[in-house]
Amino acid sequence: MSNAKVALVTGATQGLGLALVEGLARRLGPDGTVYLTGRDAARVAEAVAGLPETGARIRGELYDVAEPASAARLAGLLRERHGGVDIVFGNAVMRVGPDDDSAKVIDEYTEVSNFGTTRLLRAFLPLLRDGGRLLVVASSLGTLHHLAPALHGHFDGLSSLDEVDEQVASWRDAIKDGSARAGAWPMFINIPSKIAQVAAVRVLAEQRRAEDARRGILLAAVCPGMMNTPTSGLWWDVSSAALPADAAVPLLDLATGPFNPAHYGLLLRHGHPVPWSPAA
Ligand SMILES: NC(=O)c1ccc[n+]([C@@H]2O[C@H](COP(=O)([O-])OP(=O)(O)OC[C@H]3O[C@@H](n4cnc5c(N)ncnc54)[C@H](OP(=O)(O)O)[C@@H]3O)[C@@H](O)[C@H]2O)c1
Asked: Is the sign of the CA dihedral 123, 69, 115, 85 positive or negative?
């Protein structure tokens, strides 16, 4: 049996995803394989061609996370080729700006960040080998601190991914029919979306904690901190924010470093837990 590790990153054609692929390739060394995935075949090929040959083999693969069948299809491919996977980063995000109409973009936004994340968790967690890592790139906005207390029940104490999906669908519909505004939902759709990503990780962590601890598997959400990418540049002056390659370092440490049970099931920023709720 080979010790060669297999990693996969979603939304890896630019920004943080691309930096994670480059860092993983360096850290996994020549025996490893890193899947650089994205929604557009030409952009995937271009991103692979643009990376230096620094270690692991980098393989491009089409994976549109908004497409319902894509997670299961790619998981099947990895199972066939490698028998499993060691590191998965769910990183993709749809680029929206302050001028976008939330009601018009929310369908695609939730397909990418939320239903795309729960599909990724369902497809790839069963494929994780002992010592594996599944890290969902969320944000420090992904906590109940950023939601009106009356809304906490939508994402707190959930017990299945289906429940998370139902809550996301109901919030999405409230954005579309305009009722979200009266219901105190934040108008920055990134906030409930990131909270729902962290909620999905928490739900599964609750179910899998003992078995994952025994197998040294880390499931967590991560915040890369503010980065200088075109996505954040639509909202803020990010000229002095971290470059994706620097923001990737603590995430790569979690992906390739020793298993720390204190990190399990939490949202982590620079390797430290971010509290989920004011009550925590
Ligand atoms: N930037 C920040 O300051 C910041 C802060 C906190 C958290 N984050 C989180 O960090 C992650 C990366 O952000 P970023 O700033 O690096 O974003 P980015 O530069 O805009 O990159 C987003 C990536 O997602 C891909 N993508 C979009 N829709 C997709 C789909 N349907 N299927 C697969 N891939 C898709 C894009 O592909 P294309 O090349 O095809 O467009 C691109 O590769 C996100 O989860 C974001 O929320 C970012």
From this structure: positive
